Amino acid sequence: MKLIVLNLPRDFDEQNLENLFKVHGNVTACTLILDDKSGASKGFGFVQMEREEDARVAIGKLHGTKVKQHKIRVKPAE
Fold first, then answer.
1. Burial of 61 (0-12, 13-18, 19+ CB in 10 A)
2. CA Rg value for the chain
3. Host domain of residue 12
4. For the domain that residue 71 is a member of, what is the CATH number?
5. What does the pLDDT look like over 19-61, one tens digit per residue?
6. What is the Cα–Cα distance from 56 to 60, expressed in whole angstroms?
7. How many domains does the chain have?
8. Shortest CA distance to 58 belongs to which of 67, 68, 49?
């Protein structure tokens, strides 16, 4: 299941993002969206989890939590 993660800290990298989710299940892909010109994070990314059940648990555990003073939002990607 593919998830979108919003309001991430700008200094977050893909490894940080993967680490946040892998405690809830197997992460098969992780992509942080970067600005084309500066290469800096745009503050959101996508996480693909192998099992839908694990993705739903991750949503429940992580949505609304604070990461470096940023209240993140996690939901299924459409």
1. middle
2. 12
3. 2-76
4. 3.30.70.330
5. 999 999 999 999 999 999 988 899 999 999 999 999 999 999 9
6. 6
7. 1
8. 49
